[in-house]
Write a structure and sequence with these properties.
- By secondary structure, the protein is mainly α.
- It is built from 3 helices and 2 strands, in the order αββαα.
- It has helices at about 10-45, 65-115, 135-149; strands at about 50-55, 65.
- Strands 1-2 form a two-stranded antiparallel ribbon.
- The longest helix is centred in the middle third of the chain and has 50 residues, at about 65-115.
- The model has no long low-confidence stretch (mean pLDDT about 85).
Length: about 150
Amino acid sequence: MEKRKRYVVDKDFQIKMVKRVILLVMGGIILSGILSYSIAIYREKKSEVQLYGTTDKYGDDVRIVKRQEIVKPIILKAIVISGIASIIIVGIFMIFYSHRIAGPVYRLRKSLEKVAEGDYSVRITFRKKDEFKELAEAFNKMVDSLEKR
């Protein structure tokens, strides 16, 4: 089987699949971010208060801050950056993976339409990495038995 040239075979199906997986990843990111942030804040409150001296610019007066004021923005930035990176990576991965599902489903649908029109010579072969190979074999067996009748 030759390589498919288009990665978006069934636009509606693939977009719906990518959206659902990205929403799932976003939920996981939000949940893990809330947990990480909550744990960090809880541990900070339970530990002894540690104060640090800091300045905004060289030569300014030293300002005393709690460790919590330094750690909070770092945790939030890490959660946001890793979340955005995860969503981008998962989105790209899902476009390629949905291609392995949408292509066979599209081919199966077209083949079923041909069989419904009376063409029993239709056979399905999927590419090496496509999903639903067992479904293609079952379809081919069904068409063989229909053709014999």
